[in-house]
């Protein structure tokens, strides 16, 4: 149920679209400041003079920003030649290391009665579940000549209830998404194309609900009717408030399509009942400011994951279908304070809450008939990231997922609800010997006494840590956790004696909703204090020293990294910013990047090599 965490985060962010299209073009260089620090109030001035003065200030800011940018580019070009030889060496080394960890990617498999569908190498296949026959190609990117791009790839795939049609979205480098509808049969054929479809769900075998993306906004739900005479579309829902974004989802048991209309701080969900396709969508609960919620269904009960209630954290509630409003909501499970809800999986008879508390991952498992009895399963202490498999069956009593960390590629595990046992499954990745690396969890006291978590990785045995290079990571924004996924390229640094430190400052979501609220809006400086405290604590406990310390930050994390350079310039020696929102401090430049960085693997290797060359040169290693 990845949409649970994804949607809840997007609601808090106020964005409801794919990450790669949320990053503003040129976001690294673009000034987002509202006014100059010395600007006056124009309350009593005539409107024309006020507008003139605002345009003047805007022009000044643009000129100053452009001046700084040109100066930074000129300086970088004058110094970049000294990185070139080292950059070439790192590129070869990175390619070698990354190739060691190459594995077959995990393909999501859609199981439908006798057939299963999956995507691989630019093709969507169909095969019998007994596996006796060669998979049949349903749709190939090569046959869609109108795409005219080599960057196209399949994304969302949905099969109609009785396997009459298949719909798939295709994205391209231009950030445009289209939906292709294929009629299944002995010879599958494309029968319709939806040019701007954002997401979609099948209502019946002949009706496809979908949303369109217009100027990065989605406000309508339409229904495509596929008939022998042709295809027609009609609108079934319209959102009139421009602050809200509309998305579609399906409950895990397949009973309902949910129409989710979300703003930054409120939600409204409508249900379309697949058992009664002739009926109009029905509202669950009208939007209430400050209340966000998502809806699942099981045995004629709606299960609602929401922030509604006395505490600041999420809770699971339920209500009968006949009376779905807030007055009927009853608490099933509450997330404790300072605990991060990572995900939720609802099965036919059980629910699994995936949590993080005090630097460790846990599963809370309970029966929907007796939710007060909760089994707590602590996952291996080395694990930092958990990801549910996409093809979990509603009727199953097994939970399949993957664990990873910065020093461990994904490992597949299976938890049996019935036996209460955890099993390691085969995985295609090269594994690392966890004993070769040490993970340490630290707590840094911030300015107000709050203990800020730090996760530290280095190779063992490890001597003279105070002289080793340190790469600190920070994000601290939007209630999103700092990325601690496995990245093969970081093994190059670890093998060369580097320390990797992840500073989980406030503003992120590591310790729940309250952790985010503690450093946002007018409290943003709290994250800067936390970061400074983390670096000071690392150095004082013997991890590296300021002259051997570098700081890296992605996207909004650049605000904290850049601010640290102003308030505590002696804390670090070098800084690498990727797709930063920082307007005037550019310590490293990533051309052609988006929110995730370069899209091609070769370009990514090139950029990482350039960053490593920069760090080694500046830290005099």
Identify low-pLDDT runs: 12-61, 580-599
Which overall shape is indicated by the principal axes computed on the Cα atoms?
Answer: globular
Rounded to an integer, what's the Rg over CA atoms?
Answer: 26 Å
Beta-strand content: 35-45%
Total DSSP E strands: 34
Helix content: 10-25%
From the coordinates shown, what is the CATH architecture of the largest domain? 7 Propeller
What's the CATH topology label of the largest domain? Methylamine Dehydrogenase, Chain H
Mean pLDDT, nearest integer?
80
The number of helical elements comes to 8
Strand order of the largest sheet: 29-30-32-31-33-34
Termini separation:
45 Å
CATH class placement of the largest domain: Mainly Beta
Tell me the count of domains: 3
Structural class: alpha+beta
Task: Kindly report the name of the CATH homologous superfamily of the largest domain.
Answer: Prolyl oligopeptidase, N-terminal domain
Largest sheet: 6 strands, mixed
Task: Please describe the topology of this protein.
Elements (H helix, E strand, L loop, with lengths): L1 H12 L33 H33 L4 H17 L8 E4 L2 E6 L2 E6 L7 E5 L12 E7 L5 E7 L5 E7 L5 E6 L2 E8 L2 E6 L7 E8 L2 E9 L6 E6 L5 E7 L4 E7 L8 E4 L7 E6 L2 E6 L8 E6 L9 E5 L5 E7 L3 E8 L2 E8 L6 E5 L6 E4 L9 E8 L2 E9 L4 E4 L12 E9 L5 E9 L10 E5 L15 H6 L3 E5 L9 H5 L7 H16 L8 E6 L2 H11 L6 E5 L22 H18 L3
In short:
This protein has 621 residues and is α+β, with helices and mostly antiparallel strands.
Descriptive account of the structure:
This protein has 621 residues and is of the alpha+beta class. The chain has three domains: 2-8 and 113-355, Prolyl oligopeptidase, N-terminal domain (Methylamine Dehydrogenase, Chain H), CATH 2.130.10; 23-29 and 71-100 and 433-618, 3-Layer(aba) Sandwich (Rossmann fold); 356-429, no CATH class. Helices cover 19% and strands 35% of the residues. The protein is built from eight helices and 34 strands. A six-stranded mixed β-sheet has the order 29-30-32-31-33-34, sandwiched between helices. The chain has a four-stranded antiparallel β-sheet with strand order 1-2-3-4, with no helix packed on it. Strands 5-6-7-8 form a four-stranded antiparallel β-sheet, with no helix packed on it. Helix 3 crosses helix 8 and helix 6 packs across helix 7. The longest helix has 33 residues, at 47-79. The protein is globular. The two termini are 45 Å apart. The relative contact order is 0.10. Residues 12-61 and 580-599 have low confidence and may be disordered.
């Amino acid at each position: 149920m990845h949409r649970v965490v994804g949607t809840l985060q997007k609601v808090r962010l106020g964005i409801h679209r794919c990450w790669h299209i949320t990053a503003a073009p040129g976001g690294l260089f673009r000034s987002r400041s509202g006014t100059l620090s010395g600007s006056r109030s124009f309350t009593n001035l005539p409107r024309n003079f006020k507008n003139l003065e605002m345009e003047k200030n805007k022009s000044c800011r643009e000129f100053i920003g452009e001046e700084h940018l040109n100066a930074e580019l000129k300086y970088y070009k004058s110094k970049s030649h000294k990185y070139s030889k080292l950059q070439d060496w790192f590129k070869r080394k990175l390619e070698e290391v990354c190739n060691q960890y190459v594995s077959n990617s995990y393909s999501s498999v859609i199981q439908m009665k006798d057939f299963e569908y999956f995507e691989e190498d630019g093709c969507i296949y169909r095969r019998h579940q007994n596996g006796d026959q060669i998979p049949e190609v349903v749709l190939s990117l090569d046959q869609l000549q109108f795409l005219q791009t080599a960057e196209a790839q399949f994304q969302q795939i949905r099969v109609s209830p009785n396997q009459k049609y298949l719909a798939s979205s295709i994205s391209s480098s231009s950030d445009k998404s289209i939906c292709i509808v294929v009629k299944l049969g002995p010879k599958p054929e494309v029968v319709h194309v939806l040019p701007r479809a954002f997401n979609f769900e099948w209502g019946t075998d002949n009706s496809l609900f979908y949303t369109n993306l217009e100027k990065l906004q989605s406000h309508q739900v339409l229904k495509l009717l596929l008939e022998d005479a042709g295809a027609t579309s009609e609108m079934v829902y319209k959102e009139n408030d421009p602050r809200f974004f509309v998305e579609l989802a399906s409950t895990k048991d397949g009973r309902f399509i949910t129409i989710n209309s979300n703003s930054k701080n409120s939600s409204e969900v409508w249900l379309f009942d697949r058992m009664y396709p002739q009926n109009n969508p029905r509202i669950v609960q009208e939007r209430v400011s400050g209340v966000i919620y998502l809806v699942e269904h099981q045995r004629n009960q709606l299960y609602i994951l929401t922030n509604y209630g006395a505490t600041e954290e999420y809770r699971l509630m339920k209500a009968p279908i006949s009376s779905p409003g807030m007055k009927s909501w009853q608490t099933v499970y509450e997330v404790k304070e300072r605990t991060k809800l990572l995900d939720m999986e609802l099965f036919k008879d059980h629910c699994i809450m995936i949590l993080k508390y005090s630097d460790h991952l846990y599963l809370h498992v309970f029966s929907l008939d007796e939710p007060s009895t909760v089994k707590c399963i602590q996952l291996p202490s080395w694990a930092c990231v958990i990801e549910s498999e996409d093809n979990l069956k509603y009727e199953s009593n097994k939970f399949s997922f993957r664990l990873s960390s910065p020093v461990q590629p994904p490992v597949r595990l299976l938890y049996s609800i019935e036996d209460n046992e955890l099993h390691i499954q085969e995985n295609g990745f090269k594994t690392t010997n966890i004993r070769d690396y040490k993970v340490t969890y630290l707590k840094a006291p911030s300015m107000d006494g709050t203990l800020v978590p730090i996760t530290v990785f280095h190779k063992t045995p490890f001597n003279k840590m105070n002289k080793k290079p340190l790469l600190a990571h920070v994000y601290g924004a939007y209630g999103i956790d700092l990325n601690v996924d496995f990245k093969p390229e970081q093994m190059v640094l670890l093998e060369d004696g580097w320390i990797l430190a992840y500073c989980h400052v406030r503003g992120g979501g590591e310790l729940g909703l309250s952790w985010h609220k503690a450093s946002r809006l007018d409290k943003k400086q709290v994250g800067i204090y936390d970061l400074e405290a983390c670096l000071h604590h690392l150095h004082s406990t013997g991890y590296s020293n300021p002259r051997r310390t570098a700081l890296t930050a992605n996207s909004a994390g650049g605000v904290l990294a850049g601010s640290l350079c102003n308030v505590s310039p002696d804390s670090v020696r070098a800084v690498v910013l990727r797709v930063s929102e920082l307007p005037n401090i550019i310590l490293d430049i990533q051309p052609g990047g988006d929110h995730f960085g370069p899209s091609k693997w070769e370009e990514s290797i090139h950029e990482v090599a350039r960053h490593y060359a920069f760090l080694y040169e500046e830290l005099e290693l």
